[in-house]
Amino acid sequence: MRIALLGGTGDIGAGLAVRWAYHTHHDVVIGSRDPDAAHDAADEYAEAVASHGRERKLTGFENAMATDRADVVVLCVPPYHVADTVESVADELDGDDILVTPAAGIKREDGGFRSHAPSAGSVTALVADAAPDDVPVVGAFHTLPAGRLADLDAELDIDTPVVGDDDSAKRQVIGLAEDIDGLRALDAGGIGAAAEVESVTPLLLNVAQNNDGLHDLGVRFQ
Amino acid sequence: MRIALLGGTGDIGAGLAVRWAYHTHHDVVIGSRDPDAAHDAADEYAEAVASHGRERKLTGFENAMATDRADVVVLCVPPYHVADTVESVADELDGDDILVTPAAGIKREDGGFRSHAPSAGSVTALVADAAPDDVPVVGAFHTLPAGRLADLDAELDIDTPVVGDDDSAKRQVIGLAEDIDGLRALDAGGIGAAAEVESVTPLLLNVAQNNDGLHDLGVRFQ
User: Any idea where the Pyrroline-5-carboxylate reductase catalytic N-terminal domain is (chains A, B) (predicted)?
Assistant: First the structure.
């Protein structure tokens, strides 16, 4: 499988890139608005993986070119950029591709971090609205601690709840997630249930902020 | 400490009652609108605890009488009854008591279970609005699997995120929660952050519904 990480120069992009490169044989393509930044990040991630004993080639391209090369496109951009980013690559997407969104809307208020969903109800629903009709959209990876993901010495032992209305696409993303050692993917329902998944992200920040010794947290359902 | 479980004849009341009776020396008082039902439930929980080798006396009273006897009052009623229940016991509450709410608003929609918060923003905020001004309100126990809680043979090994604006009250509830073996309580912020905690309840239902072999789930932050 060929996976493009758009906005893949950021935290969650770095984490997913090094994990997929290290633990799997999928092709990992880094996308960015700036192709030089994409290329540099790809080299940097390849070095991180090489320093753990695996020689992998990652490539970097402008977002639309990265999308054109991919089967699965992960939108590693902030929630307020997802709609623009989907529009900017829409011509390169077709019904054989899968669009994956890990973003969660968050605002800071009295009492802690709060979920701040777009008017569509969730970032996943926003992406589904913005995507071409025939392109399946899957929400996943919202609750992964980016720092631990990027640190190949760190154990994960956490879950990622996955939502989507297209069962086949959801199964494929669950498979890609579980190709990463220590990551269990759980079906959390349709896109209508995405807000409950995206709400976990601010909760993790609140728990990390208010409890000594807990940081870079993930979640496990048990 | 004396703990009253209002609506303590239901699932979460049963679970908390047998755990506190079994694992701690706190006095457990079952409240119900029907004092006979409260009394019968208290006897039933005492038997469950006795069958695991510990003789404990639980008592049962009408909700207001149970409240009058308690230091900590847990509202084990459905979310649409919490405001009425608080009103019905308000005369028995004072600033030395702590009111604890484990309820989460849930509705069923396309795509799965959804969070359905009252207009106050969360059930915890609704309870805070309904409670006398000097009575501290703490949200806790939302994500506990009632069946596993009530089964003293079952291991917990899960967390409960706790929210509240009164630090002393929150600390006391965290202590009561951690008196139960296998339960870790985590400070998840103020009442303003309660909605993110209450949203985990429908997410747990969605994960249990969509994944074979997972049911009666709790959550662990790690």
Answer: 2-105
